[in-house]
Design goal:
mainly alpha, Ribonucleotide Reductase, subunit A, two-stranded antiparallel sheet, 2 strands, 2% strand, globular, binds fe (ii) ion
Amino acid sequence: MSAVDYSIAGWVRRVPSLQWARDDAARAATPDALPEVLLASRPLAEVHRLDLALFEVFEEAALRVSGALVRRAPTPEALAFSAQQTLDEARHHEQFRARHLLARAAAGLPAHGGTAAILIPPLQRFLDHCYEVADAGSFVEALALMNLVLEGMAFPLYAYEQRYWAPVDPALAALVKGAFADETRHCAFGARTVRELLASDPERRARVTKLAREARSAMAEVFRYYVARFVGLFDAVARRHRELFAGAELAPGRLIADTPYEEQVRMIHHSIDTEHARLLAKAGLT
Ligand SMILES: [Fe+2]
Ligand SMILES: [Fe+2]
């Protein structure tokens, strides 16, 4: 297996100076202000705010868990990786939260209280479990829950989110694109780190495999809920604003307008299942 560059020096060379500079340049080309259509269409603005609230919840959880992992990292490589991830998540949280607050202000809503409606009890239970495991100092277990289960199941959705929002809010689509690149890295590096840390301990690997399997079925319930809800909401607003979504794609070459609701839901779950199975195999958790 080739060596993975977990160093902060390597990360600073590649991520902030190249990837983020590119992302920031792309974002500078899209106006930050909310597009007119979001100010004019109440149903579209509601879906937009709800989705931003969900991004804010996920990114805050990722930030809190990554931060806790820094304290308990067992190797210098794991320490550097947790620190990098913490900075990435802080950036995502700040960016999504800023857009969410902008959308709330445009609707005359107070800054606080935007996330409660979207944080369903099974997700809250999963997040509490992540915090408990991370705070108890079980580094590899908490890393598996965060990077391989929560992010591992969520990151395939970022590609769909990016395509859904592209015609409505290009600035949000650009944010999602940037975060997607980081999340892909967190999942891949997380899988390598878990595999390396468990390489010489088959008993612990079996325990982490069981933990990841149980967490996956708990999160499958959460994702079934969010996918059904958001695809339903997007479908309804896309029907209401046919011209706006006329060219919007669900997958490359596949128009949302030509894809029935059930087919959209099926395609998204298929992406989650295949990408996630691939990630667990990469981590040696099979
Ligand atoms: Fe993130
Ligand atoms: Fe992440």
